[in-house]
Structure formats: C-alpha cells, structure tokens
Amino acid sequence: MEGRYVRGREAVRDYWTCQWNSIDPHVEPQGFQSDENGQIVVDVHQVVQDLDENLMVDRMVRHVYTIENGLIRRMDIQEL
Q1: What distance in Å separates the CA atoms of residue 79 and residue 61, rounded to the nearest whole number?
Q2: What is the pTM assigned to this prediction?
Q3: Residues 12-66: pLDDT tens digits?
Q4: Please, how many CA atoms are within 13 Å of residue 29, restricted to the half-sphere of its CB?
C-alpha cells in the first residue's frame, strides 16, 4: 500500500499491524499458477475500505510469491 519493502518477521508483522489499524482490506484469490521462474502467482480481487466502511479500492492485483526451502522468501504485489 505504501510502495515500500520490509524485511524480516518483525518488520512484516509491524507493517501489517499498521495497515490493519487504518484500513479494512479483503482479498479473494481468483486463480493460482506457477511462472517460468517457479514463483507462485495469484490473481487477487482486492477490496479496501477505511475504518468507516468507505470504499477506497476495488481492483484486481497479482501477488507473486518466491518460495525457498518451503518458506516465503519474498512477496510482491503487482498492478494488473
């Protein structure tokens, strides 16, 4: 949402905690696939409301996951 990267378990937790204190996001996966690099690609319907339930965003985005040793190494969100 802020167009930045965070690294590490604590940083990711802090990022999402901050987001959920200011918005009410809902994402619904629409399809899954693997790309040529072995990443997991998920097309997602994203609906975001503010805490007063005013619609802020209603769009499709793509979540791209890089997996290493069975763990998520990286997650990127791409505009569609």
Answers
A1: 5
A2: 0.81
A3: 899 889 888 999 999 999 999 999 999 999 999 999 999 999 999 999 999 999 9
A4: 8
The answer as to whether 13 is a domain residue is yes
Question: Is 73 a member of any domain?
Answer: yes
**How far is it, in rounded angstroms, from Cα 74 to Cα 80?**
19
Closest by CA position to 43, among listed 19, 65, 15, 13:
65
Identify the residue whose tokens are 């802090």.
Answer: 14
Range of the domain at 66: 9-79
Q: Which residues pair with 77 in a beta bridge?
A: 63
User: Does 50 reside within a domain?
Assistant: yes
